[in-house]
């Protein structure tokens, strides 16, 4: 439901134009709900953006999402949608589409009537409802399910029906709470593609809660990493995954190689001392730092040291088969992890106990303060 421009609801005050203003703005929001809480969260989601809130179980992701949806009132702080403060606004007046984690389909209604539910509540004319249901069913590939009940749908079919129902009301913002968590990996991959395709076709501003990295990479324009109820870092997936700003974020996004040391300037640039080793990096702060290198940026060789910077000699400690890639742990005085293609792994005979040279390019390392 569109909100009247004559509303006396408090508005978000900033110097940006209406087109530039974030569609969803959270300001200094705190809420405790049993054992879950969020603390001093400020977040902007742009018009037409697909934003993923990423974090481990118990981080406060769903609490924050439900607070934006209007299911909980914050203890402090403000929520703005389209520039209007919605703290005291009923959920149905916020113009949001909400897809809960369990989908919450109505078992006594057909697929078509589930999709139409929000429109029927709004007393939308029957012809408009029918056109909307058929359009969304076609977009999501579920036209053949419209006459069925929901009791015997697969997980992927249920997810598509719930998504169609949330989109039917043409929400200003679509809220997705772990929408793919109950699905098998293959179905999840297919539906990630579907979610992104639907987003690109409809342009609906989307806030998606997830703990899954592959899912996040497949759909997100930007992400926010949340931990213990606080948003720790916000940025594009590539920026956050490759340039984490804290030890928690680095480990959570699977940088794997997270080394604590001391950085100093030298004639050759920035050097980070870790235990008895020195590593050259492109840039970063001086003092006590963490140095991170993603495992896919680490090279392994059995040819012997090459004189390249950031080279260690060690032995393969453990190998984990990850399908197309092999995860190789190396004991080189420091524990290092590399992801190696299966063909390269087999050619190099990287069995546990084998001697191996570990190296990484200075430009692939990221350094941030340890405090």
Gyration radius, to the nearest Å? Answer: 25 Å
Strand content: 25-35%
Give the overall average pLDDT.
91
Specify the CATH homologous superfamily of the domain at 24-95 and 171-242: P-loop containing nucleotide triphosphate hydrolases
CATH architecture of the domain at 24-95 and 171-242: 3-Layer(aba) Sandwich
Task: Name the CATH class of the domain at 24-95 and 171-242.
Answer: Alpha Beta
- What's the tally of helices? 9
Q: Runs with pLDDT <50, length 5+?
A: 1-8
- The ordered string of helix (H) and strand (E) elements is EEEHEEEHHHEHEHEEHHEEEEEEEEHEE
What is the overall silhouette?
Answer: globular
Strand order of the largest sheet: 6-7-8-3-9-10
> How does the major sheet shape up?
6 strands, mixed
């Amino acid at each position: 439901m569109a909100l009247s421009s004559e509303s006396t609801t408090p508005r978000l005050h900033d110097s940006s134009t209406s087109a530039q203003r974030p569609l969803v703005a959270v300001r200094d929001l705190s809420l405790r709900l049993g054992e879950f809480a969020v603390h001093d969260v400020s977040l902007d989601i742009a018009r037409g953006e697909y934003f993923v809130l990423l974090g481990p179980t118990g981080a406060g992701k769903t609490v924050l999402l439900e607070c934006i949806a209007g299911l909980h009132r914050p203890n402090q702080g403000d929520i703005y949608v389209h520039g209007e403060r919605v703290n005291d606004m009923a959920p149905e007046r916020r113009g949001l589409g909400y897809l809960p984690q369990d989908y919450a389909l109505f078992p006594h209604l057909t697929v078509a009537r589930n999709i139409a539910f929000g429109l029927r509540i709004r007393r939308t004319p029957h012809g408009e409802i029918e056109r909307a249901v058929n359009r969304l069913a076609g977009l999501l590939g579920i036209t053949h399910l419209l006459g069925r009940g929901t009791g015997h749908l697969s997980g992927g079919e249920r997810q598509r029906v719930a998504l169609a129902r949330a989109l039917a009301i043409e929400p200003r913002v679509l809220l997705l709470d772990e929408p793919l968590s109950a699905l098998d990996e293959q179905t999840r991959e297919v539906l990630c593609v579907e979610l992104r395709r639907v987003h690109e076709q409809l342009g609906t501003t989307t806030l998606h809660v997830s703990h899954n990295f592959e899912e996040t990479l497949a759909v997100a324009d930007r992400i926010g990493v949340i931990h213990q109820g606080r948003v720790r870092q916000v940025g594009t997936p590539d920026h956050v995954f490759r340039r984490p700003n804290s030890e928690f974020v680095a480990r959570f996004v699977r940088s794997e190689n997270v080394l604590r040391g001391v950085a100093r300037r030298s004639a050759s640039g920035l050097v980070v001392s870790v235990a008895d080793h020195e590593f050259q990096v492109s840039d970063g702060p001086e003092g006590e730092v963490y140095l991170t290198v993603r495992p896919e940026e680490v090279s392994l060789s059995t040819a012997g040291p090459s004189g390249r910077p950031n080279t260690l000699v060690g032995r393969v400690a453990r190998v984990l088969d990850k399908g197309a890639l092999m995860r190789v742990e190396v004991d080189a005085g420091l524990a290092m992890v590399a992801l190696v293609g299966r063909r390269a792994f087999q050619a190099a005979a990287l069995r546990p106990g084998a001697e191996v040279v570990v190296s990484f390019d200075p430009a692939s390392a990221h350094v941030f303060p340890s405090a």
